[in-house]
């Protein structure tokens, strides 16, 4: 009976706040995933072993670390559902899947934003890059738009993996090629935010358009497709 | 006759018919002729020299690879929006993607052999090349999604959505790689555009190769799709048998 | 002919890969065939 009265937006808000509350209470993100992201940044420095190179490639390293971390976060966000077959219960309850998708994506956007703040701070400290106030504005815009694309794709393919139980290894294969435009766009924009190689701030903004198109396309497409992909 | 015939007769090949067997013979003879034309009958190119001979096999494989993914996208759409959700469309999509992955891999291999001879390097971050590699990986992922299990309709729906998402993904990947490369200096090797002036027989060989490979693709998808139908029927049969066993248990 | 190993190699790789795929496919078809009645083969 409640099926038709539960609006998509209410569901989305409930799912998102529930996900974030779980992460806040369990502290898994802060205690386990954050140290992982930090050690990746340190290992990049070991592997490249040269301050000049590190400064030059810092934007790419930050976004690579974001991509690797996003794999873990996406897997975790669906692990908390499939542990108690909660995704099945949600479906049985007739909750609109578009709402679940949007809620999951919003929670992912927020979590990714936290990691990007930490990773950029680490880049400032460890790789000695510089950031102006104008760069901060650009970086925040880039991060939010890139996260929408990453979260939409992550929720979509993560949901697919969770629906087909025990096949989570599929996620990187599907997700990483699909989000390559995000990596390219966000890295180039971050290069101009950091002023790497003499890039000016103005050069970064056109990439924001690419990220916006990507986020809009897959935010919308994902809302339509999520229900079909997670169907039992 | 069977011992020397390259394609087994319909009685020994369950997915064959008179028509597909005839097509198979045409394809085989066409391949022999293409090889003779490509390796022996045509002259060497003025600019490219003998490396142009790789083009007669590289261009058709690349063409078939892209054709295969167009077929996959179209048949996936026909499955998704068709009233009956016909599994035949789904199986054609799967067969076409599988054949397409093989030809995409082959076109990457022959392309990099050609690149080694012409550019002096196996790989170049050229947008077309990079997009092709992404297409290859994306459809390997698509085939993995088809293997996830579940009912046939479930497989068809999932993989249909993934195929349609790929149609959105690939142009974006291509566009962003083009933007990315336009910021960098062009690689300082020989100009990578394959503009060669071709004489009559060379052009004929190229077009002939495209034609023969298109027929080969048709033949392979025809058979593969029928094999997939057999596999689905076996799955259904297995389910029937299991249900029957269950009913007997209850009685 | 220059670069014979590259050019002939390209042809050989292509034909061998397609050949292996086709042989495996037809072998699979023969294996499945015995378990399926002709009624499930609409092309027959």
Overview of the molecule:
The complex is a heterotrimer of chains A (232), B (251) and C (44). Chain A is mainly alpha-helical and 232 residues long. Chain A contains nine helices and no strands. In chain A, helix 2 crosses helix 5, helix 5 packs across helix 6 and helix 6 packs parallel to helix 9. The longest helix of chain A is centred in the N-terminal third of the chain and has 32 residues. Chain A is globular and about 55 Å long. Chain C is rod-shaped. Chain C is built from one helix and no strands. Classes of the chains: A mainly alpha (232), B mainly alpha (251), C mainly alpha (44). Chains in contact: A-B, B-C. Chains B and C meet through helix 1, helix 2, helix 3 and helix 6 of B and helix 1 of C.
List the helices and strands and how they pair.
The complex is a heterotrimer of chains A (232), B (251) and C (44).
Chain A: H1 8-26, H2 28-48, H3 51-82, H4 86-92, H5 97-126, H6 133-163, H7 170-178, H8 180-194, H9 205-229
Chain B: H1 18-41, H2 52-81, H3 87-118, H4 127-146, H5 152-182, H6 200-250
Chain C: H1 4-33
Outline of this structure?
Chain A is mainly α and 232 residues long. Chain A is built from nine helices and no strands.
Total number of strands of chain B: 0
Topology of chain B as a string of helices (H) and strands (E): HHHHHH
Low-confidence stretches of chain B: 1-5, 185-192
What percentage of the residues of chain B does DSSP assign to strands (E)?
under 5%
Q: Major sheet of chain C: size, sense and barrel closure?
A: none
Tell me the strand percentage band of chain C. under 5%
Q: Figure out the total of helices of chain C.
A: 1
Report how far the terminal alpha carbons of chain B are from each other.
54 Å
Number of domains of chain B: 1
pLDDT averaged over residues of chain B? 83
């Amino acid at each position: 009976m409640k099926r038709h009265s539960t609006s998509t937006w209410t569901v989305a808000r409930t799912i998102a706040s529930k996900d974030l509350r779980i992460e806040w209470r369990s502290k898994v993100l802060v205690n386990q995933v954050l140290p992982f992201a930090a050690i990746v940044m340190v290992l990049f420095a070991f592997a490249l072993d040269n301050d000049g190179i590190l400064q030059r490639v810092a934007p790419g390293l930050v976004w690579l670390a974001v991509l690797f971390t996003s794999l873990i976060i996406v897997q975790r966000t669906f692990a908390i559902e499939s542990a108690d077959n909660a995704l099945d219960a949600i479906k049985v309850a007739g909750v609109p899947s578009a709402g679940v998708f949007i809620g999951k994506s919003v929670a992912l956007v927020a979590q990714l934003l936290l990691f990007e703040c930490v990773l950029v701070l680490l880049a400032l400290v460890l790789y000695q890059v510089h950031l102006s106030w104008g760069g901060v504005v650009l970086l925040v815009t880039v991060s939010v738009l890139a996260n929408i694309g990453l979260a939409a794709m992550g929720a979509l393919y993560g949901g697919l993996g969770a629906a087909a139980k025990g096949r989570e290894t599929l996620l990187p294969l599907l997700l990483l090629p699909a989000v390559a435009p995000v990596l390219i766009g966000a890295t180039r924009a971050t290069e101009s935010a950091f002023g790497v190689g003499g890039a000016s701030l103005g050069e970064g903004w056109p990439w924001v358009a690419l990220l916006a198109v990507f986020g809009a396309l897959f935010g919308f497409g994902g809302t339509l497709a999520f229900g079909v992909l997670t169907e039992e | 006759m069977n011992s020397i015939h390259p394609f087994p007769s319909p009685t020994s090949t369950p997915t064959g018919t008179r028509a597909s067997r005839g097509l198979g013979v045409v394809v085989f003879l066409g391949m022999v002729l293409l090889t003779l034309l490509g390796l022996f009958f045509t002259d060497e190119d003025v600019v490219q020299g003998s490396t142009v001979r790789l083009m007669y096999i590289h261009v058709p494989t690349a063409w078939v690879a892209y054709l295969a993914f167009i077929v996959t996208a179209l048949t996936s759409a026909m499955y998704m929006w068709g009233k009956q959700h016909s599994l035949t469309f789904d199986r054609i999509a799967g067969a076409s993607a599988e054949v397409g992955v093989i030809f995409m891999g082959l076109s990457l291999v022959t392309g990099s052999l050609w690149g080694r001879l012409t550019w002096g390097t196996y790989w170049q971050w050229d947008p077309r090349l990079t997009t092709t590699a992404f297409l290859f990986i994306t459809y390997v992922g698509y085939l993995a999604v088809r293997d996830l299990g579940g009912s046939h309709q479930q497989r068809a729906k999932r993989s249909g959505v993934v195929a349609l998402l790929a149609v959105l993904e690939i142009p974006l990947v291509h566009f962003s790689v083009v933007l990315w490369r336009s910021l960098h200096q062009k690689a300082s090797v020989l100009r990578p555009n394959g503009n060669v002036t071709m004489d009559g027989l060379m052009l004929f060989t190229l077009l002939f190769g495209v034609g023969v490979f298109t027929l080969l693709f048709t033949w392979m998808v025809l058979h593969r799709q029928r094999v997939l139908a057999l596999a689905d029927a076996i799955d259904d049969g297995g389910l029937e048998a299991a249900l029957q066993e269950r009913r007997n248990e209850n009685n | 002919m220059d670069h014979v190993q590259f050019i002939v190699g390209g042809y050989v790789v292509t034909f061998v890969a397609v050949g292996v795929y086709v042989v495996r496919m037809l072998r699979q078809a023969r294996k499945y065939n015995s378990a399926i009645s002709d009624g499930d083969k609409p092309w027959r």
